[in-house]
């Protein structure tokens, strides 16, 4: 029976990783996969995480199931982490979080819920968006449409085109996917004014916002990065927020994330929560425990939390310094192209605007690996490779 299957390409990035591993050149550079790396190119365990894990191993007394919605301590902390502890939604009991297997799991549950709640409606995503958004949504049976977002010529946002397109095409009851910060793959985010304008439009048109928050803390800070999200959450009646702790706790393989549900009232929240539990039960039944316990252990202990915050600040500062370091090197090499995009774009990713030809040339001639769409992971840069990368990019930047 399996002969009826066609070979389906899982994700171009995964084959890129494979090609990188087999490349024998000692000075090869991996700017592909979106994980944070330190200056030495390693993906280390954070100190606060390590300490929390040691406590968990010592204290854990049972491996009983955690329940469909996951770890209670973790679930109680997430709304405060996303919105700030004094956000009105928390006081009004209009938000509840469910622990999910990573941000991906949260998106999958969100899409299954949308299919149940708004069959026949459209989910709007940016052009481009994270490579997994459209497959997750279409596999859940949703109709997906795209709005303009990134403008190649300026390597920035085309906000007017985005709004015009949505105004002309989005229908009441449709869902609108936004990236909370550090847009993947472009690194181009909405300004706070633009978040306000989108919020007005969402209210006016009667859309359901679905916000993907995978990189909170990786641009300007845990609070600053979600100021737009917080504004929107305070004004809309309903919302879904898919968040990930993979990046801000560097626990990628522990599959830790949350789906936060915002409803009009406490009663509707209970019904929405039950709907989420229903789709989870027949999917993966229950999430794993470990990563969520790590996150809640760190956040609940003021000393550990301080260590984690300092480590996250170091990660963020390193990304910022790699951005400005790359830009100043390109300027020193007299590159004529405007390189301001390198410091304007936020988070780990930068969309270079490189063509498939450029990407191919950089890989074959210089051993520099990046995603096929020209996205580079800034965290793949370090003191050992930044000069060589700048020199190679300078050869191709138009
Ligand atoms: N959304 C975006 C935009 C992402 O970049 C990622 C991770 N690459 C995710 C969601 C999923 O994160 P996780 O690894 O926690 O499933």
TrEMBL record:
User: InterPro entries this protein is in?
Assistant: Aminotransferase_I/II_large (IPR004839), Asp_trans (IPR000796), PyrdxlP-dep_Trfase (IPR015424), PyrdxlP-dep_Trfase_major (IPR015421), PyrdxlP-dep_Trfase_small (IPR015422)
- Source taxon at top rank: Bacteria
Q: Which key words are in the record?
A: Aminotransferase, Pyridoxal phosphate, Transferase
Provide one Gene Ontology biological process annotation: L-phenylalanine biosynthetic process from chorismate via phenylpyruvate
UniProt keyword Magnesium, yes or no: no
Q: Could you give one GO CC term from the UniProt record?
A: cytosol
GO MF terms here are: identical protein binding; L-aspartate:2-oxoglutarate aminotransferase activity; L-tyrosine-2-oxoglutarate transaminase activity; pyridoxal phosphate binding
Q: Sorted alphabetically, which Pfam families does this protein's record hold?
A: Aminotran_1_2
Which cofactor does the UniProt annotation name?
A: pyridoxal 5'-phosphate
Q: Manganese: present as a keyword of the record?
A: no
The UniProt record lists the Aminotransferase class I/classII large domain at: 27-393
Subunit info here reads: Homodimer.
UniProt lists the family membership as follows: Belongs to the class-I pyridoxal-phosphate-dependent aminotransferase family.
Q: Which protein, by its recorded name, is this?
A: Aminotransferase class I/II-fold pyridoxal phosphate-dependent enzyme
Q: Which organism is it from?
A: Tritonibacter aquimaris
Q: What is the lineage of its organism?
A: Bacteria, Pseudomonadati, Pseudomonadota, Alphaproteobacteria, Rhodobacterales
